[in-house]
Design a protein that fits this description.
- There is one protein chain.
- The chain is mostly helical and 125 residues long.
- Strands 1-2 form a two-stranded antiparallel ribbon.
- Helix 1 packs across helix 2.
- It starts with 9 loop residues before the first helix and ends with a helix.
Length: 125
């Protein structure tokens, strides 16, 4: 039994390698690429360490939750694992919900009208 070997077209191979290098350069220019170069590959919450094998599980968290705020010094970024990143966003959403709820209830109490507020005084007369 003979196995046919397919030859890879040298031009096609060079094109694939060139495209892969371009994509890598673009990733490195992104804030994630910059953060991965700037910081150790360790989760900022649970201290889990990462390697090339599991690097896709390490994310960049924006400390002020504004994904458009990407200073070149990385001061708004921290590296978090997927689990800690999800937890951080869950805490943020809970805080926002609690804040919105307390603001709504305090304004509802201040603006509410009670037509029976003086009923006891009126009945005495």
């Amino acid at each position: 039994m003979t196995i046919k070997k397919t030859q890879i077209d040298a031009k096609k191979s060079a094109q694939i390698v060139s495209e892969a290098r371009k994509q890598q350069e673009l990733r490195e220019q992104s804030y994630r690429g910059q953060a991965l170069k700037m910081y150790a590959w360790i989760c900022g919450r649970c201290a889990r360490e990462f390697t090339h094998a599991n690097l896709s599980e390490l994310t960049v968290h924006h400390r002020n939750h504004n994904h458009d705020d990407n200073p070149p010094d990385g001061s708004n970024w921290e590296l978090l694992c997927l689990y800690c990143h999800d937890n951080e966003h869950q805490k943020y959403e809970e805080m926002r919900f609690a804040s919105a709820k307390s603001t709504a209830s305090s304004s509802a109490n201040a603006d509410s009208h009670n037509p029976f507020a003086n009923l006891k005084d009126l009945m005495k007369k």
